[in-house]
Amino acid sequence: MTSAGSGLTLLQTCVLSLLVFTGASQFALVGALAAGGGPFTAAAGAFFLGVRNAFYGLRLSQLLALPRAVRPFAAQWVIDETAAVALAQPTRRSARIGFLVTGLSLYVLWNLTTLLGALGAEAIGDTDAWGLDAAGPAVFLALLAPMLRTGTERTVAGLAVLLGLGLLPVLPAGVPVLVAALAAPVVLWAQGRRSAARGDMREEKR
């Protein structure tokens, strides 16, 4: 419904769901388009959010050891859930089964619900009148909140929100999301500086 409310057609919505099988990236892309951002800016934001899947892929490639002909197709299913299930298995065989079952079931259900949602949006008509334009950000926050377990993660998230919201009035749509990605290296740099300063103070006391 969110993508349909952003101006995408039923076909475009379904193709996006088929090709971009990661929720955070889809919501970022659709959200940027809905805010009036250009396609390249929206795609860049979605790309950066999906980079973590590349790191999952590095670990899963060693664990699953799939044939080369299968790897390009398996890469499409490298997401948080399939990585978690595969890595939790005790043997390579069970890891492969867990990856396959999780990937297939989620991929089918995700695209089926996307189709149903897009059809529902077409039936509703003007999704903005129902307030569905806020569905994307709300779902994204609901997915993100349980992942913020440490103080560092909460600090990064808070700084990213401040950067994103603060820059909305002065930067083109979609660009604040890219700038907000700088929150992670800034927080890590600050923590490194703080740790180094504490180490220097301990050395001086000795």
Please characterize this protein's 3D structure:
The protein is mainly α and 206 residues long. It has two domains: 2-147, no CATH class; 149-206. It is built from twelve helices and no strands. It has helices at 2-5, 10-19, 23-34, 39-50, 52-64, 71-75, 80-87, 92-124, 135-144, 151-167, 175-180, 183-205. Helix 2 runs antiparallel to helix 8 and helix 3 (23-34) packs antiparallel against helix 9. The radius of gyration is 20 Å and the shape is flat. The mean pLDDT is 79.
List the SSEs and their pairings.
Elements (H helix, E strand, L loop, with lengths): L1 H4 L4 H10 L3 H12 L4 H12 L1 H13 L6 H5 L4 H8 L4 H33 L10 H10 L6 H17 L7 H6 L2 H23 L1
Order of helices and strands: HHHHHHHHHHHH
Number of domains: 2
Structural class: mainly alpha
- In terms of quaternary structure, the protein is single chain
The average pLDDT is 79
Note the beta-strand portion.
under 5%
The 3D shape can be described as flat
Q: What would you report as the Rg, rounded to the nearest angstrom?
A: 20 Å
List the total number of helices: 12
Give the gist of this structure.
The chain is mainly alpha-helical.
Which properties best describe this structure?
single chain; 12 helices; mainly alpha; 2 domains; flat; 206 residues
